User: Fold these one by one.
Assistant:
Number 1:
Amino acid sequence: MGQTLAEKILSHKVGRPVRAGELVVVEVDQVMVVDSIAGSFFKRLEYLNATPRYPERVSIVIDHVAPAANLEVAKAQKEIREWGKRLGIRVFDVGRGVCHQVLIEEGLAQPGWIVVGSDSHSTTYGAVGAFGTGMGATDIALAAASGRTWLRVPESVKVVFRGRLPKGVTAKDAALEMVRLLTAEGATYMAVEIHLLDGAEGLSRGERMTLANLTVEAGAKAGLVVPSGEILEMYRVPDWFYPDPDAHYVREVEIDLSALTPRVSVPFYVDNVHEVAQVKGKRVDQVFIGTCTNGRIEDLRAAAEVLKGRKVAPWVRLLVIPASSQVLEEAARDGTLLTLLEAGATIGTPGCGPCMGRHMGVLAPGEVCVSTSNRNFRGRMGAPDAEIYLASPRVAAASAVAGYLTTPEELEETHA
Ligand SMILES: CC(C)[C@H](C(=O)O)[C@@H](O)C(=O)O
Ligand code: SF4
């Protein structure tokens, strides 16, 4: 029987054919640590009396609460800088952006690499064919100290996206539909192997990141997008790097992109996904466009396209937080930023922003937020009863203008 992409990558690393279910020890190509976990990471290294074996393979990103929101965080970040210098570790400081976006931009995830991150959305690296996975501080510290980690070779679920997205429908809608079909636990500890066929191979790197990012919301260990399209131009993809046609999958799911409509994930469960049409009219207090899911330049442009010549509803706060300094620069250069500002948006420092409710847009009791992020469980952005509706940047922008949940198409109709 042939091998899945996860089995191929791990076999290549181990130097012999491996199968789902086996425990393997592999060399790690990149260890990523985020600000919120860095303190525990350093404590574990101290406890082990160890330093990173390959400091150049370790990156720390100050992104979750950046700039520091209080004294405690400020002290922790000061320590990160000191430790970074002492150990010779790369530190991406305040303003550089969300860890996953930064690592991809910096070329610190490559096809066939093992990237372990202290952050659950490390599956995002699968967009470029890296086996990216999230781990706790102890495993991350051991990976840094030894240069290796252990993994159970995951079983795989195959998700095939076919066709082209209709106008106004985005990769986020496709990703939400995928989570609905897989369910929040449907791919626990599995690799979600994503195939883009019959036109879907035209999806950009950023769009693939959105897909790989959301796989963890179905419980995935890794989300691997089989390289095609622009990835083949941007990266060196080895020829062994494809799953075999007779590989074994636990489950196979097909999504016809050409038949997709705008989606929204309704609180408090990520897989509670509906057509926007089914929940439209929900009054909105805050709209947040950003995060590792949808804070890229194409996302900001999509929002600006909807917002051009319009104003945000008087009762809505529109927060736009570019996923990285590169994204912010590009948005400044091409005029996207001005369009957003003219519509009434507030622009925040590149990073996670209010995504996990630590700062920069925490929700008060009873408030409703449309967010382009990936999680909407109770209390995620603040008050336990505040509601988060997950949607695409287009739907988020349209909802900011209307002041209630809607699509750009609906907005056109009501204004016509
Ligand atoms: C802080 C970090 C560990 C966390 C994660 O693991 O995902 C955060 O990024 C999140 O999205 O909830
Ligand atoms: S943007 Fe949100 S989901 Fe992504 S790493 Fe930051 S807190 Fe986690």
Note: The longest strand covers residues 156-162.
Number 2:
Amino acid sequence: REAAAPARLAKVVILATGGTIAGAGADAASSATYQAAKVPVEKLVAGIPELKNLAEVRGEQVFQIASESFTNEHLLQLGRRVAELSASADVDGIVITHGTDTLEETAFFLNLVIRSDKPVVVVGSMRPGTALSADGALNLYDAVAVAASSDARGKGVLVTMNDEIHSGRDVSKAVNIRPDAFRSPWGPLGMVVEGKPYWFRLPAKRHTLNSEFDIARIQSLAPVEIAYGYGNVSDTAYKAFAAAGAKAIIHAGTGNGSVSNRVVPGLQALRAQGVHIVRSSRVDGGGFVLRNAEQPDDKYDWVAAHDLNPQKARILAAVALTTTSDSRELQRIFWEY
Ligand SMILES: NC(=O)C[C@H](N)C(=O)O
């Protein structure tokens, strides 16, 4: 019998954007005090020789920033590069190294606008590589394992952190400092163990190839801001955002996305001026906002963000408003994505 030809290693591109996974501290005990976005991608890759058993890897430095400084322009530039690479026959999967603070926003954005079924995996770390028990190397190893795996195709943009594989739509940073920082309210999709992904569930919402949005058709994102709900709140921030040109304001509401009676008239007036009001919830670990519960959305022509947290609601509204300014369309999109 002839021996089977050895399987070709997948080709994976690592797009590096900075964050703690590229961070460096003064000594090994500095796990929380360090500078993010210091180490270049070549060094990150060279630090994990085991990557070459998983894939043919090459790195590309896109930015070198902490993720709290990401702007819409960074999202668009990164998205265009991911689209280009995913269209190339020479690329099987893409990994994006990213700071963890806004990782959930970038992952959701790419999940909405990248028209490809090739694996795109966003990864970060909670400790810099210089720290004791640094988590970045294993997280990156897991990300490359997932990006190289044909099983990961068509599952939308994914996030690997702390051995788990999450949907980029669902996942968010739930705690800081600790390496178990990322949670999905509906659970992770799977796990990576010793460089092999294991899957347990699939995303139910529209994404990537099944999305109506396409990075190729987006010149700029709509200006969308977030205002926080709390006791003794006023409508000052909402009005200021609208005056500065916001097309939609995400209300990071208390509980069910409730709105203080001190703020309701101001938001009605802003809607009458054309600004969209999207009610989300500030609760951590799984908000759930229903239309016409707490506030009469039909009457006020407001939108319910359903289970999307305020920062994810901002991303969806900023993308959706590039194709529609109709509130019913906006609401449909909030149910479907
Ligand atoms: N753990 C991290 O990556 C935090 C860092 N501030 C960032 O988001 O870039």
Note: The first helix runs from residue 41 to 46.
